[in-house]
Amino acid sequence: AYLDLLQKEILISPKGPPLSTIYLGGGTPSLLDKDEVRNLLENLRRKFGFQDGAEITMEVDPATFSENDLKGYIEIGINRLSVGGQAFDDGVLSSIGRKHNRSQLIEACSWVDKLFKKRILRSWSLDLIQNLPGFNESMWTHELEQAVEMEVPHLSIYDLTIEPETVFGRMHKKGKLSIPIESVAHKIDLETNRYLKSKGFS
Questions:
Q1: Which of 3, 22, 81, 93 is the most interior residue, by most CB within 10 Å?
Q2: Residues of the chain with confidence (pLDDT) below 50
């Protein structure tokens, strides 16, 4: 039903210039099979056209795809992948309701990096969230160390955002969410900048 509505949105959208960047994300697109992604891209191409060399990125969740799935996505035109890791720590991953664990994340990064180094993929990125429940400065530094070990060309670091009508929002309101206090969160942010700059990230 969602894909049908999305296709209708594409059809009624005003026509603009050919697309140079396409980003399939904001959820878990890797729950879609290859044919569903292909149909979506074909509809976008028919409506807008793609510029030569267009970057086509897809977010992937480590719990929802195999190495063969990645190859299928590349066959239909995906040339950049964004891995939604969020954290390496199994306890933290469990506390935020993620279905993957550390070993699955490392395996997923390995698959993606192998395709990148073979120049089958144009690039890839890894998403992490700082200031998650249970994090302290030393834990977060270890998270960054593990991310850098994945040899990822691009790291996206986000702050935890607590929205009112969500599980985290309700837990926070009841005082049941153990997130870093403001002073610790500030130190974690400074450590992110310090450590990644020391490793060549900007």
A1: 81
A2: none
